[in-house]
Structures are given as structure tokens and as C-alpha cells.
Amino acid sequence: MKKILTYVLFIVLVVGFGALSGVSNMPGEWYQSLEQPFFQPPSWVFGPVWTTLYVLIAIAGARTWLEAPASGRMQVWFAQMVLNFLWSPAFFGSESPILGLLVIIPLLVSIIVFVRLSWNRDRVSGWLFVPYIAWVGFATLLNLSIVVLN
């Protein structure tokens, strides 16, 4: 029962804070006025992708918490969550693609570090972060493109 509650708590908190960060920092007129790269996905893609990623991130976090709550892996997991939740306020809230880039690059690095630290201890958690690496890598390219184009 404790395991199930841990998973539920992680999923509710990660998805909830992710939704709160997104709703609190919606792209507005400022963002619409920016020149976008040709590969910018339609806005409706972001909600389902992030919701799915947040569930995967939460499961990896719960697995890590249950195995080693005071480990370096857990600290990296929390660090990437802080950076993740800071990106929307940095980019949209501050209306600063450069500030967003200064947040998303260490976010990408922390995600990669988590996978590396997890790979030999809990390969499932490492695999759960692979789509996250792909998406944040793509988001980093988008963010950099917006900086360059504007």
C-alpha cells in the first residue's frame, strides 16, 4: 500500500505543479509576436506531451524515492524538477527567451545526469527519462532558435 501511495503522491504533485506552472505562465501576445522557427509545433501539442512526460518523470521519481530517498540520484531528480518548473516563469513570465535558455540548458544536463546515475541502479527509471531527454532537447533547440530569430 505504501508503494502505491508513493506513486500516486508523486504523480499528483508532479502533474499538478506542472499544470500550475503552465497555467500561470501562458504564452500570450508577446510570445505570438515573436518570430518562430519553421519546426515550431502547434500549441495544442504541448499539453498532452507535458502531461505524459510528467507522469513518466513522477514514476521515475517515485521509484528512486522508494529505493534511495537520500541518494544523489534523488537530489538530481529534485534539481531537474526545480529547473523544469522554473522554465515557464523564466521564458514566458519574464518574457525572456535568453533567460529561458539559461534555465533549459542546465535542465537538459540534469536530465542526462539522472539517466546516467540511474542506468546501472534502476534501468527502468533511466528509460522513463529517455522521452524527456528527447523533448527537452527539442525544446532547447526551439528556445535557442527563438533567441537567434529575435
Structure description:
This is CrtK/TspO family sensor protein. It holds the Pfam family TspO_MBR. There is one protein chain. This protein has seven helices and no strands. With 150 residues, the protein is mainly α. It has one domain.
Which helices and strands occur, and which strands form pairs?
Elements: H1 2-24, H2 29-32, H3 46-67, H4 72-93, H5 97-119, H6 123-128, H7 130-149
Helix pairs in contact: 1-3, 1-4, 4-5, 5-7
Question: Outline of this structure?
Answer:
With 150 residues, this protein is mainly alpha-helical.
Order of helices and strands: HHHHHHH
SS content category? mainly alpha
Oligomer: single chain
Q: What radius of gyration results from the CA coordinates?
A: 16 Å
Query: How many domains, in number, for the residues?
Result: 1
Describe the global form: elongated
What is the CA–CA distance across the termini? 52 Å
Please state the average pLDDT score: 96
Low-confidence stretches: none
Number of strands: 0
For the sheet with most strands, the description reads: none
The percentage of residues in β strands lies in under 5%
Number of helices: 7
DSSP helix fraction: over 70%
Output the keywords:
150 residues, mainly alpha, 7 helices, elongated
